[in-house]
Amino acid sequence: MADIQFGVIGNGLRGPLARIAHQPEKGLRVTVVCDIAPANLSNATEWYGNDVTTTGDYRELLADGDIDAVFILTPDYLHEEHACAALEAGKGVYLEKPMAITVEGATRILQTAARTGSTLYVGHNMRHANYVLEMKRLIDRGDIGKVMAIWCRHFVGNGGDFYFRDWHADRRFSNTLLLQKGAHDIDVIHWLGGGYATATQAFGGGFVYANSAHRRVGPAPSPAWSEDDLLTHWPPRELPGVNPVVDVEDLSLVQMQLDNGVLATYDQCHFTPDYWRNFTVIGDEGRLENFGNGEPGTVIRVWNRRSSYEPSGDLRVTVAQGLGGHGGADERCVAEFVGLLRGLEGPTVTSPVAAWHAVATACAASASLRAGGGVERTAELDRATAGLSREAG
Ligand SMILES: NC(=O)c1ccc[n+]([C@@H]2O[C@H](COP(=O)([O-])OP(=O)(O)OC[C@H]3O[C@@H](n4cnc5c(N)ncnc54)[C@H](O)[C@@H]3O)[C@@H](O)[C@H]2O)c1
Fold this sequence. Notes:
This protein has 393 residues and is an alpha/beta fold. The chain has helices spanning 16-21, 44-48, 58-62, 79-88, 103-116, 130-141, 159-163, 171-174, 177-180, 182-193, 227-232, 329-341, 352-370, 383-386, and strands at residues 4-9, 28-34, 53-55, 69-72, 92-96, 120-123, 147-156, 197-205, 251-258, 263-269, 275-283, 286-291, 299-303, 315-318, 376-377.
């Protein structure tokens, strides 16, 4: 198999994803790391060895003719610029979700991939999470009949720490947390529901952090992120170091209609005490629901007999424990990307077209929310552009 040399653009919290790909014994090497923050380049030698080079200019990295593919792990508002430039340079691209912060940006990325023929992979790793894969398997097996409705509740208990102390809180850089955080959930709703949203309606607003008395002033840097903070920052209105600009919502309630008639709701709250996602999928012969997101004891419960209150379900499927980033989902995404680069045949579980639809749906829901809650049609993807990407079979 051909050796592959990788570059990394953006070596922040998500930097370890590229480290998964660095397997010299398999001919996979990260050789150049780019970040505008010098401090975020300091781990490059430890991770990738003494031969790795670093730069603060992504153009310099893309000009390196020995690099075959790049991991783009920069903030959302840079995805369009960095992905299009890398595709134009003939590099294979692993692009973090969300694909872009506008529908136009996401469309430009798809079109650039189609025109250049460069490989594009969008890292919607939740499709590779064991509990999501298990729900998909049970649905495909027919355990709940034909899917009619999906309700997703996302309790983003660490929302303040993760999203309201840096660039995520500012619309200019993330647009909306329905996109930044919700792109994952919307993509899973689309996947489990077997269609893409065509219409959405949403209510929401900034209920806690927009009114914070603890906003940073002036050019003070974002506070460093620490696990301990997650335990001590409570209640949410006391969160220290809130970003100077907070104009994204911390509570959003979305309804969607998919193109196959499935109805879905998506509720996202960034000030709950607990952190997890709960999907309820209702079919015409039963329903299923996840309890846990991959931690030990995560179980999918299925109800498909008549009963009154029966919290344990008629069937309980224990979700296999996964090792690695996001329970092994990151490793599976990287493996899919490497497979694409090496020309392996077969559909991928993730899909750039599905990633585009997550952007289109989140943007439409956000437009509805910000305009008072009317129905918004989602953008349509023209068939020529949609036809370029391999979909999950
Ligand atoms: N799939 C997942 O599970 C998952 C989880 C977390 C984050 N993400 C995504 O990963 C991306 C990065 O998120 P993060 O949490 O690592 O953010 P981060 O802010 O920690 O890291 C971003 C890095 O990009 C660097 N950067 C900014 N501008 C740059 C430029 N012009 N050139 C080079 N480097 C630049 C920053 O200095 C920083 O080191 C986001 O798009 C986010 O949505 C995905």
